């Protein structure tokens, strides 16, 4: 059985996500939603009859709460901005790898959405899976492997485990890949992502990500503070276009991180 584990705080696309689950051709699953948002979100969860854990927590802790309250043998790490293609669960059920990375399609036609899709295409078709270089993240992980991964992260991070927002999923992949090399890539686009449509949305998100990495200071995962680790090969379309996206993301991230570093000396 799949345990579909979803942290939620805004709920903007939650109905689309839930409808995509309801319409799956493979129906052996449960849904666990960690609601760190509003009562209105609770109403939607109840409407669909899914399990809710209502607690205001940071992202990594939310993923952990969803998992410890799950019963399935396979965990699907989903987000409130990602909907599944109708046959997504059926397609992945045929693959018994410990971790499965699937293709994604950005929803929308803005300039920045097109750049994000171009980045995804390059990741999937020009690179090999690598948790350090910033490859696409596994959405499906065997439950025992994920449990062990969380155990290690909680031990290594201590109290900081509850504070981490970004890079939550990246850390999960990094630790899980140290425990198992059973990872497969399904390049078919089984997930549709409601991503950042405007420059302002990108800047806000990656600035917030940069600030949030303060949690990793003085931990064994401090390496993840270095955004330059993402050295991806580019083989599709113009490198200049993708570099434009990387510059916007990277500069916003670094500004957020640098301002936090400066605050250490001004507080």
TrEMBL record:
Keywords, alphabetical: Transferase
Domain Glycosyltransferase 2-like: 12-79
InterPro entries reported for this sequence: Glyco_trans_2-like, Nucleotide-diphossugar_trans
Pfam family, one: Glycos_transf_2
GO MF terms held by the record: transferase activity
Source species, domain of life: Archaea
Protein name: Glycosyltransferase family 2 protein
